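To whoever is on call:

I kicked off a structure prediction for a single chain this morning and the downstream step that reads the tokens threw a length-mismatch warning. I double-checked the sequence; it's 191 residues and nothing unusual in it as far as I can see. Pasting both halves so you can look.
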Amino acid sequence: MAHRLNAIRALLARLPAGTAANQIRSNLNDVEKASAELVHIRMNPSEMKSQIANAMDVTAAADRLRSAIASAKKNCDSIIEKYRADEASAQTQAARLIPNEFAAETRSVFRSLSADEKNRLLGDLIAAQDGPTLAALLDAPPMLSGLSSEQSAQYRQSYLDAVAPRDTEAASLAEIAAATIQTAEQYFPRA
């Protein structure tokens, strides 16, 4: 049982520094504490209590662990979702993806190009980091730009990755939080 608890502690140790990580760490520490309490009660039944009373203590500790897991799942998902939204907003702002006053003319010229010319132009705009011109093409409905929604999303992400690379902390946070909660659920399935 102690090795199971050590697996949870090892996952918690992998959390990076940062505000979102600290909030997640706090939630996951509750899972770790509830897991430790359950392990302790299971491994060290009180000699002063009957077998039924000890079983009731284990059940109560298991209920606290279930509650901690459910709360951690909900809170971690919310924290990670907010962190990702904040990162996406910061990335978009840093990329200057705001159409300029020539957006309509830009789309008109773009629609007249062949598919190869469109791809070449978009590649050149990404390389030149021309956010306003790309925004005119990528933020417009498919009928106005001549690009499908999927193409627009793909070119937008290519541009964002080139101009304002994403912080990978959110993915790391989500992975560690999910692994910690899954480990607790796996090791204490009947908790």
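Update from on-call: the warning came from a stale cache, not from the record. Cleared it. Sanity check on the structure: Residues 2-94+168-187 form one domain.
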